[in-house]
Amino acid sequence: MSSLEERDVGVAAAPGSSSAGLGVGAVGVAVEAVAGVAAMQEEVAIRREGPEPDPDEPPKKRVKLPEGEAGKLEERLYSVLCCTVCLDLPKASVYQCTNGHLMCTGCFIHLLADSRLKEEQATCPNCRCEISKNLCCRNLAVEKAVSELPTECTFCLKQFPRSSLERHQKEECQDRVTQCKYKRIGCPWQGPFHELPAHESECSHPTKTGTELMGILGEMDQSHRRDMQLYNSIFSLLCYEKIGFTEVQFRPYRTDDFITRLYYETPRFTVLNQTWVLKARVNDSERNPNLSCKRTLSFQLILKSKVNSVLECSFLLLKGPYDDVWIKPVIHHHSFSNDTNETDYVPLPISDSVECNKLLAAKNINLRLFIFQVQK
Questions:
Q1: 152 - beta bridge partners?
Q2: Strand pairing partners for 280?
Q3: What CA–CA distance (Å, rounded) separates 183 from 175?
Q4: Residue 376's pLDDT band (boundaries 50, 70, 90)?
Q5: Which of 236, 253, 287 is the last residue of a domain?
Q6: Which of 11-15, 200-204, 290-294 shows the lowest mean pLDDT across its residues?
């Protein structure tokens, strides 16, 4: 009977508001509240740190976070579009091998020239596939992409697209280096463009006396006279009675000596009823010209015919009809005889090593030779 009474009392007390029942309910609510706060904090932490990556997620959906400055888009494009040889962004044409590796024009021509000097097949420095002017082609998409990449103006240090940088530096930049308009009368001033009006308003050269200006103009005329002397000499040679010219083609050869040396020679050709040969050498017969970045060409004219009297001749070399190598004409003179049938080696007047590499990169060097016979 006591157990039944206790059961009835427990049942009756359950819906009541006794102190024991209230304590148990408060503890339950508190536990639920703490659990809810912990869940919210965990959710906030997950939102801040991002969701944990799923190992089964495709790689293309993962976001690669940038790592400092190297994470910039421009920096990544620089490493993708740069030349594989010099590791610099191309400034002009871009060539690619059959596997797509990029080379700027200068490095591409340099590789072809090196292969000619070594008598080897030119190869891509990345994949070692064969490269040549026939196998490689220009990559116009890369050229256009590089032209849109930002670069820094060397004068004002502002960023501009590469395609508009040249026009900005020549015409628009206020910090570009310019010269005074009175330079023609001897003013040596050079400075930023924005300082030009202030300088010209205070320049002392417009107020110089006529005697002072005559001395300055005399030096300028002397320099101009030297330039005109060459062209006047060429015009005088064109008045000679006997003038001959021909297209010459240099081909590479190597000596049969113990220490072989590279040289270039043309087949025999006939000009002015005489037989001639042209020889050329790289860096004055340097042992390994491929180890040098600076390259020059020198040539000599050899008379192969036998002559009865001394043959006074003037001669000069110019670029071939379809070549893009710039050669400044220089007139040479020599008295040919059976004993002195060879001229000294004289430098081929090209501007720099880049122009020389253009010639060396070709299978054959094509030039035009003029010979003028002096009448006694």
A1: 159
A2: 264, 299
A3: 19
A4: low
A5: 236
A6: 11-15
The predicted structure's pLDDT at residue 228:
86
Where residue 241 falls (left for φ over 0; alpha for ψ -120 to 50; beta otherwise) is alpha
Residues 251 and 336 in one domain: yes
DSSP 211-240: HHHHHHHHHHHHHHHHHHHHHHHHHHHTTS
Task: For residue 311, give the nearest of 334, 286, 295 by alpha carbon.
Answer: 334
Number of domains in the chain: 4
**Whether residue 337 sits in one domain with residue 282:** yes
Q: How many CA atoms lie within 13 A of 200 on its CB side?
A: 12
- For residue 14, being part of any structural domain is answered with no
Angle in degrees, CA 111, 117, 119, rounded to 5: 95
- Domain range for residue 143? 72-148
- What pLDDT, in 10s, does the model give residues 105-151? 989 999 999 888 888 899 999 999 999 989 999 999 999 988 888 88
> Can you state the angle between helices 140-148 and 73-81, rounded to 10 degrees?
150
Residue-averaged pLDDT of the chain: 79
d(CA 137, CA 278): 34
pLDDT in tens, 42-63: 544 444 444 454 444 444 443 4
Range 21-48 average pLDDT: 46
CATH code assigned at 171: 3.30.40.10
* First-to-final CA distance of the chain: 160
> Is residue 129 in some structural domain?
yes
**Do both 202 and 303 map to the same domain?**
no
